[in-house]
Amino acid sequence: MSAIISLSNIEKYYGEYHALRDINLEIAEGEFFSLLGPSGCGKTTLLRVIAGFETVSSGAVMIGGANMAHVPANKRPTNMVFQSYAIFPHLDVAQNVGFGLRRSSMSAAEKEAAVTDALKMVGLDGFGNRAAHALSGGQRQRVALARALVLQPKVLLLDEPLSALDKKMREQMQTELRRLQRQVGITFILVTHDQEEALIMSDRIAVMFEGQIAQLASPQELYRRPNTRRVGEFIGVMNFLEARQVGEVPDGVELEIEGLGRIDVTSAQMPEGARALADVIGLRPEALSLVYEGQPAPVHSVDAEVLDRAYYGDMTYYDMKLQGCSTPVTLSMKNLMSRQVLEPGQTARVAWEPGSLVLFASD
Amino acid sequence: MRGGWLRVYAIGYLVFLYLPVILLPLFAFNEGTVIAFPLKGFTTQWFVELAGIQALHGALLNSLFIALITASLSVLLGICAARASTRYRWPAKGPMMGVIMLPLVLPEIIVAVSLLVVIVQIFDLPLSAWSVIAGHTLICTPFAIAILTSSFQGLDLSLEEAAVDLGESRWGAFSKIVLPLVSPGIVASFLICFTISLDEFIIAFFLTGAEPTLPVYIWGQLRFPTKIPAVMALGTLMLVASLLILSVAEYFRRRGVRRIGGKDSGGFL
User: Fold this and answer.
1) How large is the angle between the packed helices B54-87 and B179-199, nearest 10 degrees?
2) Which element (helix H / strand E) includes B229?
3) I need a labelling partner for A226 at 20 to 30 A (CA). Which of A232, A291, B244, B264 fits?
4) Longest dimension (CA), chain A
5) Between chains, do B163 and A99 touch, taking CB under 8 Å as contact?
6) A84 CB within 8 Å of a chain B CB
């Protein structure tokens, strides 16, 4: 796979404000790529830089091997789905979808066929004559997709396309966007602040904080091995416990972890920069579990008390106080019929999975 | 009765507002030459008389010409200002927009006198329809800006970017997307400026040349008591014309709102 988009040393200033800091990124052809971060992290700015709506202060944007420095937005091989969808309200659905084709050299019949195909692709077959304002949120989203895809761009840019939809519709569109992307084979770049959405849809994710890429990885790697505490906090839920190095073992160190006791940690569990002298470990809620009565207690387990719980139907999340540990931890349990849901104040044994532990450099 | 006083107030308000206006057509069809009750018989002779006054036709054409050019210029300037103020930021934007909107509250007599001084004394130009147009454009442009700004403000900025993204040039995006969407505002501001210019008196009185505008002509006629019934007839025609214009403007505005599926937030009617 070759790189369709290549960004090198991108810097962007708005006056004094440093919006993008040294962005270096290669996005492969046919990839579903996400820019993930909290609001104000520069992810939308970066998308707009690629689209040509923002100029860079320095650095180079290459699309399909061509330098985009002097190529305006309307000449770039990218198309965008806007957060507000930006459906032209005075045009009907077919006119909206056909808007970008008006300048093409196709015959009228070819254009009409292209519009029909695009509408069919997004599941709006036969909607061509509908007025734009008569559409629901989900349908507008589909029209915006069809309008961008009908031009067969090299890259499709999506700016928080699902944030305005309700939960059910959002989940449906996530699956559908993914299916659509595989079908057309175009590179999709998605901007989102929703980590779950990014994990579900992407091949790779760039997590951004303060105009910088904090980590660039596949969803699995990002979730399992966040490279900083901040990334771990942002993606899903993570418990952080203080740890202190007490010895060395082959290919790793021995740690004394607050509340959990002594454990050997391999170098694979240490991201770059973690010095393993006075650091922090991260443990996902699913790496901790309750040991029910009658079950044998595993080696790695400690006594704990339930502080609070949140019942989600399929899962229950418990806030637990581990014995000898000042930091409360969160653990999650699947709600099987045979499992009793514990109430605050009850005590239980908590088992933990040493292999799931990640070591971070302390801030 | 619930709300009794409110009802009395509402009726009293409407009577105060519209009774004088209703008197106009009443006396326009009255046979008597004096404006007084009781009414005499029904006649249409004043309208016939109107048709025969050459000077009146000249004044009417002059006024229509001035109103047409004024409205066009004001809307054009208004589009530029409204677009700039809603889309861009620049240093001293607030004070600048304030100064542009100032003629809205500036006494017309001051505008009229100062323009007279500028045109006659400083530039030494003859007074003509164009001097009136200059004055009218000055006072109409703020109205156009006020109406158009609300049209431009309602527009999603990404609509224009979407058009550019789909291959249009900036001008193409503006003309194919922005202008059609603000067209109800353009029509409304055009008609408002047109009516303001048509019945404006003070500036026209100072700056008009040899050919008076309609209001200046009417003012001149009021000195002759025998002409008053004809003036009433003229007033009636103007009343009907303004109602028609406003209805047409409102029709287009509502159609525009419906077409883009917006919520109607009230117009002139």
Assistant:
1) 140
2) helix B228-259
3) A291
4) 76
5) yes
6) yes
The answer on A244 and A224 residing in a single domain is no
Q: Does ipTM exceed 0.85? A: no
d(CA B28, CA B17): 19
Residue A296 domain boundaries = 237-361
Tokens representing residue B42 in the block: 């029904």
Q: Other C-beta atoms within 10 Å of B174: how many?
A: 16
CB contact under 8 A, A79 and B165: yes
Which residues pair with residue A309 across a beta bridge?
A: A318
Q: Which of B166, B180, B261 sits opposite A79 (nearest CB)?
A: B166
The SS3 of residue A240 is strand
- How would you list the strands of the sheet with A288-291, edge to edge? A288-291, A347-352, A301-311, A315-322, A329-334
φ and ψ of A185, to 5 deg: 70, 10
Within 8 A of A131 by CB-CB distance, chain B residues are 259, 261
Instruction: Kindly determine whether residue A133 and residue B260, on different chains, have CB atoms separated by under 8 Å.
Output: yes
**Overall domain count for chain A:** 2
**Residue of chain A whose Cα is closest to the Cα of B257:** A90
**Residues 232 through 261 of chain B touching chain A, CB cutoff 8 Å:** 259-261
Instruction: Give the number of C-alpha atoms closer than 13 A to the C-alpha of residue B3, restricted to the C-beta side.
Output: 4
Nearest residue on chain B to A135, judged by CA atoms? Answer: B261
SS3 state at A350: strand
Are A260 and A215 within one domain? Answer: no
Which residues, other chains included, contact A344 with Cβ-Cβ below 8 Å and sequence gap of 6+? A306, A307, A308, A309
Segment holding A4, helix H or strand E: strand A3-14
Q: Which of A230, A251, A277 is the last residue of a domain?
A: A230
- pLDDT tens per residue across all 363 residues of chain A: 578 999 999 999 998 899 999 999 999 999 999 999 999 899 999 999 999 999 999 999 999 989 998 899 999 999 999 998 999 988 999 999 999 998 888 888 999 999 999 999 888 888 888 888 888 888 999 999 999 999 999 999 999 988 888 888 889 889 989 999 999 999 999 999 999 999 999 999 999 999 999 999 999 999 998 888 899 999 989 999 988 888 888 878 888 888 888 888 887 777 665 555 558 889 999 999 999 887 887 888 899 999 999 999 999 999 999 988 888 999 999 998 888 899 999 999 999 988 888 888 766
- Residue A202 shares a structural domain with residue A281: no
Do A201 and A260 fall into the same domain? no
B87 to chain A, any CB pair closer than 8 A? The answer is: no
Residues A15 and A163 in one domain: yes
Name the burial class of residue A129, with classes exposed (0-12), middle (13-18) and buried (19+) by CB atoms within 10 angstroms of its CB.
exposed
Domains of chain B by start residue, with CATH: 54-259 (1.10.3720.10)
Residues A64, A115: contact at Cβ < 8 Å?
A: no
Single out the residue in A174, A199, A230 at which a domain terminates.
A230
A353 & A219 share domain: no
- How big is the A-B interface in CB pairs under 8 Å? 64
- A108: DSSP letter: H
The pTM of the full predicted model, rounded to 2 decimals, is 0.81
Contact residues on chain B for A83, CB-CB shorter than 8 A: 158
Question: Residue A272 sits in a domain of what CATH number?
Answer: 2.40.50.140
DSSP for B12-50 reads HHHHHHHHHHHHHHHHHTBS-SSS-SSP--B--HHHHHH
Residues A210 and A280 in one domain: no
